[in-house]
Specification:
12 helices
Amino acid sequence: MIPPALKSATLSLLLVLSAGAARAESILFVGNSFTFGATSPVLRYRPEQVTDLNREGIGGVPAIFKVLTTQARLNYQVSLETSPGKNFDWHLANRLPLIDRPWDVVILQGQSTLDLERPGNPARLIESGRQLSEVLARRNPAARIYYEATWSRADLTYAKPSPWKGKPIAAMARDVRAGYDRARAASASVRGVLPVGEAWNRAMESGVADPNPYDGLTFGQVDLWGWDQYHASAAGYYLSALVIFGAVTGLDPRSLGEREVAAYELGLSPTQARGLQKAAYEQLRAEGLLPDAPAPAAP
């Protein structure tokens, strides 16, 4: 016969465990090819780990995020809704029934030039971002909604006509960030802007990544761009996922260690993983999203 005190303690433990299991946070990624991982193995990376609401078998950056959080012993239910070349207005007009749910966390990533027809102009992003974030916030007023400011395109800096041709490689990412900052200011529902593009800048400035893929790859540096010099490589998407991981969870990306699983599976060396984790942490620290702290011991 089980003593009443033991029975009560056992019941309490079961209630705690079941409550913990039920507290898995839901996170939705809405974006385009910069989220689903075009031109890299990230596109089909671990699709079984996430829910692709469009049923296209995509893993993408959301799957990297899932793998990172699992290693950190966190429980996220990860979903994504993506379509190439699209901005927020397209998702509002065409995918609202899929995404209009009470998510805990939402990551919104828009067109790489802010506006396809008017590169560098954030007006459409500001208005459609406000509308989309308000729809999602009505479903869950406590939802943590973030914009993701993306990276400088090497093709538009070094090769193709654009507002950024001939400027320093960091310029486009800074302009994109400024557009997202304006969009955030226009929407009370958005908590912050995730500095992915500026983490790319930091990786290049610190010597982790090569700033110009058109003049050859410097030995010991990674190329953050894919073969079109537009989308990201596996390393570039990995850095994006690290920034999102740190901002959403509040955990230091360096705590994942140089032998982190996703980096290994995507073909990154321990040195490359460590350098990208450091760049992500330093950008998040500079933004006040993570505290100043020494590098944690590797797991």
